[in-house]
Write a structure and sequence with these properties.
The chain is of the alpha/beta class. It folds into 2 domains: 13-140 and 297-325, Rossmann fold (3-Layer(aba) Sandwich); 149-284, Rossmann fold (3-Layer(aba) Sandwich). The protein has 13 helices and 11 strands. The chain has helices at 13-22, 37-48, 59-69, 81-85, 88-96, 104-110, 128-139, 175-193, 213-228, 240-244, 246-252, 270-283, 309-326, and strands spanning 28-31, 52-56, 77-79, 119-122, 149-155, 161-165, 198-202, 233-238, 264-266, 287-294, 300-302. The strands form 2 sheets. Strands 8-7-9-6-5-10 form a 6-stranded mixed sheet, with helices on both faces. Strands 3-2-1-4-11 form a 5-stranded parallel sheet, sandwiched between helices. Helix 6 runs parallel beside helix 7 and helix 8 (175-193) packs across helix 9 (213-228). The radius of gyration is 20 Å and the shape is globular. The two termini are 21 Å apart.
């Protein structure tokens, strides 16, 4: 990889999702909350964009919701929970998560290793802890992944796209875990944007301006990333302004391969990451896509219970892209 990432193409959130879906014709996404009105509406939109939604719910309930919402489900697959439980998805659950019966969440996740779907999206009506438990028990971690992490893709009002990690999973990562966050988030960013990642390992210090155990951890993680992927453009430790702004980067970290041009920002812990993405979303007016789970053996992603149909479409497209990138 080159040491400096090119400027990402300016785009709007709607155009971004449409661009993702254009690459995903026929990709199957299991939707766990299949009779939720938001999910049914999103499924109809996804089908129109070329993705193949698989609604896990009773057919009569889905049809009732579709009629009430005024949407057509001509290209949408509806999978009855009882039928899934009696087939290969049920066999997967009997081995990995016994005792759950015809639970739509568990069955939607199991549909992926059972070969009935390429990715799964859940959480519109279930807590995140339940989604993560099902994903870890049924799908498991990917070969070579040290841990499960997460990232956000932030679409800024000026059209720029930046990646944040980890904002949802690891409270206090050690150096190897932080390195895993950086590697996984850089891959996710490249998959979603088509742009080479330039990764800044964030701290309150820039290149030795302060000393603390947390600063040393960021430096160690940066070295581990470089050892595992020498081609990745990465530097740390960097303060956020030095990572983002060219003038500050030249002043504080002259000669850095990413200072002033970073597009992927790795926070030192969950407190910083969660606060950072919410500040960017609420004060800068950015659209936040995520949390995007990383390190699972197959794509499973979680929704907020307050999600909109737009959110479900976007997360489904992201999940499908993760599946396509893994092939």
């Amino acid at each position: 990889m080159s040491t400096v990432a090119p400027e990402p193409e300016v785009t709007t959130p709607d155009a971004l999702v449409a661009r993702w879906c254009a690459r995903l014709a026929g990709t199957r996404v299991a939707l766990a909350d299949g009779d939720d009105p938001r999910v049914v509406t999103a499924a109809a939109r996804l089908a129109g964009l070329g993705v193949t939604p698989v609604l896990v719910a009773r057919v009569d309930r889905v049809q009732e919701v579709a009629e009430r919402e005024g949407v057509r489900l001509d290209e949408v697959t509806i999978a009855e929970p009882d039928d899934l439980a009696a087939g290969t998805a049920g066999e997967v659950l009997a081995e990995q998560l016994p005792g759950v019966g015809a639970d739509p969440l568990a069955l939607a996740v199991a549909a992926v290793p059972a070969g009935l779907a390429d990715a799964c999206v859940a959480g519109a009506s279930r807590p995140t802890a339940e989604v993560l438990r099902a994903a870890l028990r049924v799908v498991g971690t990917a070969p070579g992944a040290r841990c499960v992490t997460s990232s956000f893709l932030m679409a800024l009002p000026d059209g720029r796209l930046i990646g944040y990690g980890d904002c949802a999973v690891l409270p206090e990562p050690d150096a190897p875990q932080l390195a895993e966050v950086a590697l996984a988030t850089s891959r996710t960013y490249a998959t979603l944007t088509g742009t080479e990642p330039a990764v800044a390992m964030l701290s309150f210090s820039t290149k030795g301006s302060a000393e603390h155990s947390s600063v040393g951890l960021v430096r160690e993680a940066t070295a581990l990333v470089t050892e595992r992927d020498p081609t990745l453009a990465i530097d740390g430790e960097l303060q956020f302004d030095a990572a983002l702004l060219d003038s500050v980067g030249r002043s504080k970290a002259n000669g850095s391969p990413v200072a002033g041009r970073a597009n992927v920002f790795i926070f030192p812990n969950l407190a910083a990451g969660n606060i950072g993405y919410k500040i960017t979303e609420r004060l800068a007016g950015a659209k936040a896509y995520g949390p995007i789970l990383q390190g699972l053996a197959a794509p499973v992603n979680d929704l907020s219970r307050g999600c909109s149909s737009d959110d479900i479409v976007a997360v489904s497209a992201i999940s499908a892209l993760q599946a396509a990138a893994a092939d």
